[in-house]
Write a structure and sequence with these properties.
By secondary structure, the chain is an all-alpha fold. It contains 10 helices and no strands.
């Protein structure tokens, strides 16, 4: 793919979309750590300096993708969960449904999970203040939408409790994803020694257990379960 110089705003917007689409395609083939600006530039058909005319760094590209993925995931949850808790459904049933829906929707978005797992340590390290503001403002919108979704299922939490649950759940998602997707040497070790299966982590079961413990700890104590 090659481009002529983008002169008009719509041409620049198209160029940005092409860069983002190429980066998204790369993330289906490789982890975030392996996505380089050199390879991204080569695949999109631009010099690295030209890519940097649209994004201030590789990390800025990946943060914008992360915002898009997060927004789409929130919409997945909003579509899959009721906007108002059914009165006849017990609190533990609603909690289990919320956890199952969150974990299932995350498992279907490995790119989002990989981006979350590298966000603080990698993606937020080489960016401008402008990029940081754009990313964090998008994250705030998603956070507020998630609070609405969670409170719709479990009004007992209230917005403050839902916010605490979401913040902790996002940290857990990144950590559990990282440990459940180890590097080849660790995978080989697990395969070589079956006894190591006791410490091998699988994403969906581990995330389910962690969110259940987190959620039930956050629910009001006087609610029967």
């Amino acid at each position: 793919m090659t481009f002529q110089r983008a002169r008009r705003p719509e041409q620049r917007a198209e160029r940005r979309r092409a860069i983002l689409a190429t980066a998204a395609a790369m993330l289906t083939e490789m982890p975030v750590a392996d996505v380089s600006l050199n390879e991204l530039s080569r695949r999109v058909g631009l010099a690295k300096s030209n890519v940097l005319n649209y994004f201030d760094s590789r990390e800025a590209v990946l943060l914008e993708l992360s915002s898009s993925e997060l927004s789409a995931w929130v919409q997945d949850l909003a579509s899959a969960l009721p906007h108002k808790a059914p009165e006849a459904e017990a609190i533990d049933e609603r909690a289990d449904r919320l956890v199952a829906t969150i974990v299932g929707a995350l498992a279907k978005r490995p790119v989002l999970c990989d981006l979350i797992s590298t966000q603080a340590a990698v993606l937020e390290r080489n960016i401008t203040t402008e990029t940081a503001l754009t990313f964090k403002r998008a994250a705030l919108v998603a956070y507020e939408e998630l609070i609405t979704v969670v409170v719709g299922v479990l009004p007992e939490l209230g917005p403050e409790g839902a916010g605490r649950f979401i913040a902790a759940a996002s940290l857990l998602a990144g950590a559990i994803w990282t440990h459940s997707h180890p590097v080849p040497a660790i995978l080989a070790a697990y395969e070589t020694d079956p006894a190591l299966s006791a410490i091998r982590m699988e994403f969906e079961p581990a995330m389910t257990d962690a969110l259940r413990a987190l959620l039930y700890g956050a629910l009001p104590r006087d609610q029967g379960r």
